[in-house]
Design goal:
2 copies of one chain form a homodimer.
Chain A: H1 6-20, H2 28-35, H3 39-51, E1 55-58, E2 64-67, H4 76-84, H5 91-95, H6 102-124, H7 127-140
Antiparallel strand pairs in A: 1-2
Helix pairs in contact in A: 1-3, 1-4, 1-7, 2-3
Chain A binds a DNA duplex (30 and 30 nucleotides) through helix 3.
DNA sequence: TTAATTGATACTAATATAGTATCAGTTTAG
DNA sequence: CTAAACTGATACTATATTAGTATCAATTAA
């Protein structure tokens, strides 16, 4: 069971790169090469993040992408939801109200509790927090 | 993001059915029809659970499957691990020790913490607990 | 005016999930 | 003793998701 897929993962790395250079434009190309992310794949992720108002772009020479939303306001939960859909434990049957089977309903109760726990844990992790951790780690490693 | 896939889900339902009739053999066919699980699919899941010593089988007429392991000792974590592989937040890069990229290491720390939280939450949910919840619910609904 | 860039979108490849089919072997009821 | 009800084993197909590539038009700064 894999919790973060590549796209979420790459998106996090890209946001860390952009947050570290807040206020200036970074090209998709430079992010891709520096962070070892497939270029065209990354471009699609960046587009998606523009649509969600996490970042903005500038076209043309010297163009690129820049942070828009405050990194402390961007949670991993939000990124998972954008790139992998809402966290839900068992999609098909507990969501439908039909639920003829009693066993499902019992499971559903536990499962929604865990859903909330998972979400709230991932909500504690913001891009801002990761960036600070990253900076702290890089000082130690000097 | 889907946490439980069909196989885990079906496995849980089958175990609940078997636990409810502890000590007697239930055929794959009867479980499949009663719980609306594709028959051949279920059979594979049952085989897998035999391999993991959760249940035992008896061949031939009047044969079927019976619980072996104590339902209170079977956690949802265990079932997820059997059918979906170990819970891990980001498979490919944090596991390898290589980790040339510092950003990965920072994420890795948070991510392993969450991994533990998720696992421990799912460990609280056992087949035994679900069965008791199920029985309590069915009394209320009488 | 051209090279570096994003916008948009279509495409392919690989993998995981879900489900089906088949045949051999075992057991018990009649 | 044999036919029917079962499991054991395994191969197969279908669908969905994830991952990655390619292409071309539009924009912009040098």
């Amino acid at each position: 069971m894999k919790v973060l897929t590549k796209n979420t993962d790459y998106a996090i790395r890209a946001l860390l790169a952009l947050s570290a250079k807040k206020g200036s434009y970074l090209s998709a190309k430079s992010i891709a090469t520096e962070h070892d992310i497939p270029y065209q794949f990354l471009r699609r992720l960046l587009q998606e993040m523009i649509r969600h108002n996490l970042i903005v772009s500038k076209e043309g020479v010297q163009g690129g992408f820049m942070m828009q939303k405050d990194p402390d306001e961007i949670t991993v939960t939000e990124l998972i939801e954008i790139f992998q859909g809402k966290v839900q434990v068992s999609e098909c049957m507990f969501r439908k109200q039909i639920c003829g089977n009693r066993a499902r309903c019992v499971l559903r109760h536990e499962i929604m509790r865990i859903e909330r726990v998972v979400q709230s844990e991932f909500e504690k992790v913001t891009i801002g927090k990761l960036l600070r951790d990253l900076e702290a780690a890089s000082q130690v490693n000097q």
